[in-house]
Amino acid sequence: MRSLLRLCMLTAGAVLAALAPTTAAPVKLRIGWVVAGADAPFQLFGPKGVAIHEGVTYEIEGVHFNGTPTMITALATGDIDLAPLAYSSFPLAVENAKMDDLRVISDVFQDGVPDYYSNEFMVLKDGPIKTLADLKGTVVATNLAGSAVDIAMRSMLAQHGINPKSDVTIIEVPFPNQKPQLLEKKVTLIAAVRPFSADPELRAAARTLFTQQEAIGRSQMIIMTGRAPVLQKNRAAIVDFLEDHVREVRWFTDPAHHDAAVKHLADFTKQPVERFASWAFTKKGDFYHDPAGVPDLKALQANVTQTAKLGFIPAALDLQKYADLSLIDAAGARLK
Q1: pTM value?
Q2: What burial letters (b/e) apply to 18-56, b meaning 16+ CB within 10 Å?
Q3: Which domains occur in the chain, in start order?
Q4: pLDDT tens, 110-135?
């Protein structure tokens, strides 16, 4: 009888275990980023409670890069799942790396939007560069050839009769190292992006020669991208991630949260709050993040066309073919 009772109890336990709901482990999303506060997912440093799905249906592993072009290799090898690519590096991935399955899924941020910040290209106040023409024969800095700011810089040079391939020497310098290169007069021009362009020491010694908006107009600077098989396999988790992305954007850009938002960014970057307080997540001082997470495909198409004109890709892509906004639309529908 005891053996029979024990067998019944074990059988009942097995049945109950089989019928009990199972909790799947969160999907790990490996996401590239370059600059915190710009293209890095806000979930990496946002407050608890805003991203309601993080840790439940997905978790983020942030992977840092010096520029978006180097993310292309990581996408191709499957070392990252999602990448915030620039308007310039996206067509490079499709055309040069032959990733025809790459898709634009959401906005990350835009440059040149009225009343918002635009990247600055800076020279020394007391240096020899007074106009763009003075750059001929000098050494100028970019972060990576083919990056968004690099395309903007080359476009502006070309518009003013300066051949980027022969009239100047362009060297690659990571953003954090560009200020000392300029101050030590090793280069004459740097691409000053946020947060580096807000550095008080830089602003005291340098001035803005031109902005990215003046060079190429409005740009869909960074878009979130992923390969179709990854998007299909992890669709539910990625929609949850995008829903949380929109929640984070709205929280960080809400003026009522400004002080707390700046504190979270400062803690993540291990920089003083004063480095960000006057500009981060504000109009005029920061980039535009679409509050619905929807990219400006018209601007993106114009940007890609300009990239082709400069010879970085064989021809301009038809971006409608490479956009899958169904995920951000599904995420946005939950927040209406």
Answers
A1: 0.85
A2: eeeeeeeebbebbbbbbbbbbbbbbbbbbeeebbebbee
A3: 27-110+220-334 (3.40.190.10), 120-216 (3.40.190.10)
A4: 999 999 999 999 999 999 999 999 99
